Structures are given as C-alpha cells and as structure tokens.
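Quick check before the chapter quiz. The format below is the same one you will see on the exam, so make sure you can read both the input and the output lines.
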Amino acid sequence: MNIVCIGGGPAGLYFAILTKKRNPRAHVVVYERNRADDTFGFGVVFSDKTLENLEQIDAESYKAITESFFHWDAIDVHFKGEVVTSRGHGFSGVSRKELLGILTRRAREVGVELVFERDVRPGDPELAGADLIVVADGVNSSFRDAHKAAFGPSIDLRPHRFVWLGTTFPFEAFTFYFRHADPGLFQVHAYRYEPNRSTFIVECSEEVFRRSGLAEDDEAATARYVEKVFERELAGHPLLANRSIWRRFPVVRNARWHHENMVILGDAAHTAHFSIGSGTKLAFEDAIALRDALDRGGPLGDCLKSYEATRRPVVESFQRAAQVSLEWFETTERHAKKPPLVFSFALLTRSLRVTHENLKVRDAAFAERIDRDFEREAATILQQPLPPRTDGKTEPRPPMFVPFRMRDLVLENRVAVSSMCMYSAEDGTVDDFHLVHLGSRAMGGAGLVMAEMTDVSRDGRITPGCAGIYKEEHVGAWKRITDFVHKTTNAKVGLQLGHAGRKGSTLEPWEGQDVPLPTGGWETLGPSALPWDGRHTPPREMTRADMEVVKADFVRAAEMAKAANFDLLELHCAHGYLLATFLSPLTNRRTDEYGGSIENRARFPLDVFAAIRRVWPEERPMSVRVSASDWAPGGTTDADVVALARMLKQAGADLIDVSTGSTVPEQRPRFGRLYQVPFAELVRSEAGIATAAVGAISSYADVNGILAARRADLCFIARAHLFDPYWVRHAAQAQGYELPWPKPYGVLRGYNPRFA
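Here is the expected output.
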C-alpha cells in the first residue's frame, strides 16, 4: 500500500508510525512544508489517561515522551489576591519541539520516509500512485481548502485574542492568573513542560487588546508589556516569544472528513480550544482510530467511512465541551463577580467534563470546602442556621439538598419538577391523572412541583386537553391536588399561568404536533398578525381592549390560584405563547408603544405581571419563565433578556425560570448537555436575581455543579422526572443522603436496596 501523509505534525507522524509498525511492507512517506526543527509554540499538554492509552499503542514513543515531560496534579487559581488550589488532576507538559523530535526519530526507526521543506499540493507528481492521502497539515490546511467542495470546512474565528508565550518561571502546578490592568482583564493559562521552561498563554477580549495599544505581530513589545502586567507573578523571570502573535482562536469543523482516497486528521479536520486540552491529544487519537479502521480491512472507502462514523461523535463531544470552556473564558468578566472559591470551582467545572462528583474523587477536601461554603451562603439567605441532617451525619449536604428561600416560602431542596403539559384535562378541569402525576413526584422528593402551563381562559388553551383555571370548578380540582401534596409530603407546589396566543387551537401533540384543529377551533391572539406557520390562521392583532380582557383573565386566574392554595405562581412568558410573542422582535412587529425596543415589547407582559402581583399574597413568591434566546437570527438578544429580568425584578419577581426557544418554527437550537444553563447564569449574574436552570439536566452531579458554581439557584427537571417520579430520592440514596419520608413510608428510613 502506498500512503502519502501531508503534514509532519503529530497527526501525520503518529499515523505514519502506526501504519509502518503494523504493515512494514507499506510505503509511507510524510511531506512537511517546513524544516524538521521549525515549529512554534512551547509546551503541549496530555492527561494521565491520554498517556496511558498511548502506552498501549506504541510503547517506544510513549517511553520517550514520558522521559521528557513535567508532571503535575494541582491546579492553582490566582484571583482577587487569593490562590485557590485543587489537586488530583493528573496532567503532563512536554515541549512541542521535543515531541516532534521524538515522533520524527521514531518514524525513521520504523522505516517511514520523511521529506521536509516540500509543500505538496493537489495534482503534484508526489501524489501519483498514492492509495491513501492523509491530510494533516494543520488549521490552515491548504490541501483541505483546495478541496472545499469535498470536505465542507467551516472556521469560526472567536472574538477573544490570545498570544502564546513562554517563560523560565518553573510552575509547580497548572496555573491560572486573572489580573486587571488599565485596559481591562487579562487571563493567563500557564504550565511547566521542562525543568526551566513553561508555557504562558495570555488571553483577553478584543476591546482590551485594542485598548492596550499593542500590535498583533510585535513580539518584543508584547513580551515586555505582559511582563509588566504580571511582574509580581513572574518574579523577575522573562517572557519568551516564538511566533507569538495575537491570534483569534479558529474553531475548525468539516462537514465530511473523507473523500475518494483522501482523509483529513487533526487540526485540519477539527480544533478544540486550548483551555480544555491539547489539539495534540485529538491528533494522536485520530491517528489511532484511522489505523484501527484500516486494520479491519475491506475496501478503502468503507474503511474511511467507518473511521469517520466511529471517530466523529467522540470529537464532536470533545468540541462541545471545548466550546463551553472557551465561551466561559470569553465571559470571564461575568464570572469575576463571584468570590475566589466559587470562581475557582466554576472555572474547574466550566467544560462540564469535570463535575461536582468528579471533584470529590479528585480532591475530597476541596469539594467539602465548596459544599460548606454553599451551606453558609444558604443559611445567610434563610436568616437562620440550617436544620441538622436527618441522618445525623456531620459532613455538608450535597448542594441540591440545601434549602432555598423566596419570601416566606422555604423549599426543602433545590430540585423542582418542571412544568410539563399533559394535555389530559376536560375543558380545563384536572382530574385523577393530574393528582397521581403531580402527587407521585412530590412523594418522590422534589422540593417544588410545578403544575403544567395552566391557561387563564378557554380560548387561551393550546389544545382542548390543556389544563385551565378559568371556571369555579377548577379551583376545587386544583385544591384537591395541593391539599394532597401539603398533607402528605414536604414539597411545595406551584402553578404556571399562561395563554397560548398564536400557538393555540391545535390538536393534542400525539394527534399531530402544532397541527391546527380541523373543527371546533377558536380565534387566536397575538401582538401582530403573524401565524405560527403556513398551516395556521394568523392571530388577531390585539387591541388595547383585548389586552385589558386578557389581563383581567390573568388576574382572575391568580385569585383562583390563591384560593386553590398554591405556594408559588409563575407567569409563562416563554416558548412562543402569547406573552412571549410580545417580547420577541421576531413575533412583535407593532409600531405603537407595545413594539420596538425591549422596554416597549415588555410593556404588556410587565403590566400583566404587576396586576397579578397586586392580588397574589405578598408573602408568596412569583417567578417568570422566559425564553432567553429564540435560536434564530434577529431574535431575542442577551441584552434583551437581561433588561427584561431587571424590569421583572423591579416589578416584584423573585425568580426567573430561564428557558429558550420555541418562538418560531425555523429555530436552530444548539442542543447539548445543559445547553440552556449559561442563559440562567447570564441572568443571575447581570440582573442580580435568582434563577432556575432548565434543559437537558439529568444527573445529580450536574445539579450539584450548577448550584455550587452559582450558575443558578434551582434546577427545574422535566424528562428525567417523567421517566422516574422518584428521581430526587434516588439521587439522595446514591449520595448517601437521607431525605425525610412520608410517615407511611417510614420503614424505608436507612434502607439501601444494594444490601436488602
């Protein structure tokens, strides 16, 4: 087999080594456009786990790498004059130049042909007769870009600036610095890779970079400037430059990784921000995966297809984590409002790959500090000491089981059953199904159980099966449920008031999602006469008189909710329903005082909220569910949702339940684990109001991490509670925490099914 590798970086060299080892008869040649010793950068990072995997693949290169690295297990975070240390992380730094030297020597040992200072392009004679062309020539791959139609590359240049420097300062831990200078905040990622050499990556916003007056490519001026900013930290050690220009990080993705006899590897195929780990790790793993696919045999096209199908999900998962991490660093000013310990925890868990539970394993003492700090803060809000644990243990509670207070309402824990439409009512009247549905989840240990979106009028329903609170008999039906929850459990119960607006008069979803009723429908309302989609009749554009009627419906519903003895009331201003359509510029095209700016678009929802707040008991809290993003161009912005939250706080809201989307059918959400949590953190940080996080939260480790990092104050969980009504109790049992049981279930106190 004749194999040509384009690019002499880690991906190309390691693949060449593995191929020649496993198939000595193959002719493998690597073409590199630069000299053998011409590289930039300083150190690269490997986790202990990555290195362990490499040992199994090629022991010789592993041995050479581990003889050259500097190992550490601690991370130091320097912030606001304090140093917070977390241990047990297990990483190694190695010189990039030394690594390439190791791989070059190893490639020659196994018989790989290496050709330096030769820039091979498509159509060059060196490619004639190649059975396989491995494209591994880096981020700026000219070979990939020459085949754009085949690979479909996209490059997202991120807004922050960074510069890769070195120093002689011998860091003993992976070190983060956060320092304000005159232009603004500078942050540093630093680690040692040789006895007297360390990597020193400096990052800042574009605005800070511009204010610094530095030029992109003036290495000497950059080194001197940064030495001055971090003079105390460097303790007299100089900064070193090597092609140290101020870059913007390129997030590289490709629609396809193979075409005919070509395949792309490493940075040519994908990149992951340096804050989560080394692109070198991905390059090595790409090489291993491609070699494994080829080893399985069969036609080359099938092998390359198998490689991409196997490897792409792993890389995309890594890239999602890297994206979350880089966005955390792009919003450091927001996180910098937190105290040093909380800030450090948030930093360590930013990518979601390190969780609260994982930190307990890595550094139990650090995790305990975090949990005790969370308890102290909660006790301050409660204005009294926390009650002792029911199991008599002295260690701090997991954050999810720390009480939370809003006005006079105290929740036993921080987990709520999120509002979920059941479409099972009769003319708005809930029945035994709802009693069992909500009652079982209250029995299951949730601190707060939110009833589904409950419509304030018959014409405000989404479907004929939607719950309502617009008739007198609705009060008794709901009170039957709240009485059961209050009598039988420690849970509190909330009601979400809503009006479907233009999304109303549709079939139940199991009969057809967002399908208009063929018969028996009703007229819908909206701020503008814009239908949900082409199948729907446009809503009637609301007049001031319509607004007064709808507001009166909400007020009547709130008074009924009070009579039904709900503990909390939530106003639904999300997901494309009536009040949400006033808030989004995609659905509100009005030119009067209810359209235009966010202040105008929020006018009617705020008017409704204020009217409800006046009749809702002062001692009982109110929350508002909002869509913080429409996931569509021209929709709600971060600034919009922060402004809205501030207005709601001023009007008396106690909690913002931060969701996203469902405003327009053409939305393109960026789904993923905890994908909506950053919006809750944005609102909490910038508006200074308590928030609930929602969206793809399914593990207690994630709940604890969200809370401990102060990304939100509560977690609203939907699908996991549908699957397991006792989700909270199971989470408690898994963490060794004893929740109070209803008296009839008292025999289960201390029960552990593993030993039953």
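If your answer matched, good. The two ends are 60 Å apart (CA to CA).
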